[in-house]
Inverse folding.
């Protein structure tokens, strides 16, 4: 948190921040702070902010894609993937795993957030019947981390730390121009609101269970099929039960 952000009204007070962290953990706090900045920060034009939206999808490892934070704006739909990490961050646009380097050189791996948010955008585009160029993908990291080697910004996605989010977003909004007239904005707001209302605690619990099975290697990360042990010319390996439609494999 920064004192300047609090003075501007872009960040909540200290005690509220602590309460959210205790209730939702570090990851939930990052999403909350991003949501708060989008709702209370100075941004031109009409907007509506939604958090933790489950978007049904027909393909993928889980039945839904969970969007951390979404900003519906008259210039487009901005989709935010929040990573409330510390340490040094390394990764490339197409690399499946990124690296977080902590104190004493300890390393942690996490799924590429560019690819992660790309899946969110595709699910939203299909559900809302909009072209993908109506969306803008933002990867928002904590101010506690240092982005040592990450991809440059493109027309498809942008990577920033949270203290720079509103400054970057205002510039982005100004450059894009208005896309949704009032009637279309209201229609999209109602449709996204329906998705948000359907994202109940029970639905989120099912989604988390599915996601944990993917992380555990029990479910194919591409299509959601069961991962089974197979024998091949060069020995045993894990493969998707939907082969040959899905060719995912993993070493034993």
């Amino acid at each position: 948190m920064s004192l300047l952000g609090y003075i501007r009204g872009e960040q909540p007070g200290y005690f509220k921040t602590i309460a959210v962290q205790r209730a939702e953990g570090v990851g939930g706090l990052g999403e909350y702070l991003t949501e708060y900045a989008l709702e209370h920060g100075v941004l031109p034009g009409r907007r509506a902010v939604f958090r933790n939206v489950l978007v049904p999808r027909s393909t993928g490892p889980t039945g839904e894609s969970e969007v951390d934070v979404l900003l519906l704006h008259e210039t487009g739909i901005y989709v935010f993937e929040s990573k409330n990490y510390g340490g040094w961050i390394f990764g490339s646009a197409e690399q499946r795993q990124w690296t977080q380097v902590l104190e004493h050189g300890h390393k942690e791996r996490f799924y590429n957030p560019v690819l992660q948010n790309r899946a969110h955008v595709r699910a939203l585009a299909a559900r809302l019947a909009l072209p993908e160029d109506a969306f803008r993908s933002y990867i928002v990291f904590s101010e506690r981390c240092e982005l040592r080697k990450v991809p440059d910004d493109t027309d498809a996605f942008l990577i920033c730390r949270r203290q720079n989010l509103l400054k970057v977003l205002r510039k982005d909004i100004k450059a894009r121009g208005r896309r949704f007239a009032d009637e279309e904005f209201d229609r999209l707001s109602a449709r996204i609101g329906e998705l948000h209302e359907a994202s109940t605690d029970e639905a989120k619990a099912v989604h988390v269970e599915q996601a944990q099975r993917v992380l555990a290697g029990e479910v194919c990360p591409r299509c959601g099929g069961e991962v089974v042990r197979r024998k091949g010319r060069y020995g045993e390996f894990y493969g998707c039960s939907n082969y040959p439609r899905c060719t995912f494999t993993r070493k034993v």
Q: What stands out?
A: The chain has a mean pLDDT of 91. The two ends are 44 Å apart (CA to CA).
